[in-house]
């Protein structure tokens, strides 16, 4: 079979839709006076199809009007035969053509209310994720051993509204380098395709250097405006239903230092909860469950009161599209669902490609964080800002070598 060669128009469509990996075929057809391209790409020995509706601008440039990924936003076709067969079916199936409606393919993910949990190791993130989602799917640690090594997220509904809660690895774990934590946070962007509703900083006790650093990192990664979408969740607070005691603690926390006080005053505030481990004894367990349920109620009341728009930084959509295929292919392989047993060289190439995309995302984040640094320079002393920038840039450069 002759090797497929991209035309200039195909390249323009590929670049404008941000499709990565090896392009195996592009075909064009018209339907109902609209132009369509079908693009097949290959990542990690897996295949995906994009159906793209495009038009021409006055300058004869291609203008992408809508896109749809097949089989869906996350999955792949496992064989060449399967993908080519499906690609042939699309132009003659109006039902499939009518699915081509998204401005970015990632907009197919309709969860706008993404809640990202960050915090120190052992602070109670996974427990909070269970409480928020009303599930038991997140692994809560029993001892001091850190449990969560990777991202886990869950979509659920509460009072008819869809939410996603994202549990992350904690900061302060000696087994995980700082760089890896920064990258994991950057990677969270891909999980929250429609943006961030709230970041919950999980606070198990007093405010320490780790929490301060986490917040600075979040600001560097997501931009300074993220503060308006950040809430401190103070757990392990048995008197969480006593507003006087909560107020007293709030005041004490604010007094600790000026930086914490600024954070508390400019963010979405502090929500007090108690999410105890579920006891073996039936009687005690009932009380634990009641505490968790009341905590959940408080958290959703707070979320409702934060009616501000979902937050996304510049180029958020492009970043999500850029990494979508690679992360999905990687996850699929890691979860053992890919029965294709990819060849070693394909694995090496995918790792290289993932690293290249990591580099792009990091460059993008770096550019944006430096831009926002100009605006907020007055927030830090000059010496601190300089030291942090050098340090941060250095760390980001190192991240690219992480597999
Ligand atoms: N009493 C009480 N215990 C809690 C609360 N939140 C968490 N815990 C306990 O604290 C321990 C750590 O909780 P996790 O949810 O696993 O903490 P994590 O932040 O996910 O930890 P890593 O994944 O290791 O970073 C567990 O034993 C929980 O049962 C709380 O609000 N009250
Ligand atoms: Mg955890």
UniProtKB/TrEMBL annotation:
The keyword Nucleotide-binding applies. Gene3D superfamilies: P-loop containing nucleotide triphosphate hydrolases. Pfam families: AIG1. The keyword Cytoplasm does not apply. Residues 110-324 form the AIG1-type G domain. GO terms for molecular function: GTP binding. InterPro entries: G_AIG1, GIMA/IAN/Toc, P-loop_NTPase. Keywords: GTP-binding, Nucleotide-binding. PANTHER family: GTP-BINDING PROTEIN A, GTPASE, IMAP FAMILY MEMBER-RELATED. This is 2008_t:CDS:1.
